[in-house]
């Protein structure tokens, strides 16, 4: 990227942030009109379109070429925590060279994956494809390359649709990992993949149309996970329009997911939440708002961690493509990381927060954001650091996997 283009990115990011703020401002007043909201959204979409990179950088979905080179060197030198993280990934069920993929034409997922007709199988196979692809990208073992391709080819030949109430989220979970796996297999090492076009068609026709729509009125982790998947798939497909749309969704959703005092007395919220009572209900009954609080904090930390992790994933993929989403939401995301990391380790819960009761369990969601903000941008995140170090090597949680291996201390 040239210096002049870098400057353009900075200007575009600032304009985009203003467009997002305008969209929410127009949507918050009692006299809101559909016309004003639509105009703001159109302006924001136009900014995102202008922000599209002329060409995508590959590999450029969550993990980039320079990262892989760094990790290879660390593992070759038997340095920690990368060596232990790599050994853990290789020893996991997701790295099995004998396990067989379990595709089906229709994956039916109800609320909380009940019924589970292929939901767990698809998620596990997507994570396995990513795990095998990552191992291959690091050590060049062709057996893992062939297994990753075997899994993706099996699903490409069979899957037609996702159904039932959890279908959009399921599509996001699996699509995020399948997008990463495909990107690594297509752009690292020398490997024969005759079925690449067929898998690309699967992502383009079965996954992308669902995840690109977002989920405006659902809990925020849905839309953020779907946006993570959409941005991942868009880069693999070299689909600039979809990447732009995913970025526009991210710019709208992140300010609605994490509160800052400068937002006003109430958090930013989707258009349908047009009264104080509706906003508070959407924020799980929480009526006192502080910096870093998330829309799902009082639901549980598991879903909140997914939301934050997905938000950071999209920012990381954008970073690899030359777009600084991290910088655009630096204050909001760092406040959220530190707020939840501190509470995760606290022995007591303040009485004003979630009626004094928290469902903890943040999961392996902090490594990528911590590396960027603390490691690259020199933001002090003491509680996040403590939790990250205690949780290494980070494992797997649905669409999250092996992030100590891919992001710990990566320059």
TrEMBL record:
The keyword Signal applies. One of its GO terms (cellular component) is periplasmic space. InterPro entries: Alginate_lyase_dom, Chondroitin_lyas. Keywords: Lyase, Signal. Residues 119-343 form the Alginate lyase domain. Signal peptide: none annotated. SUPFAM superfamilies: Chondroitin AC/alginate lyase. GO terms for molecular function: lyase activity. This is Alginate lyase family protein.
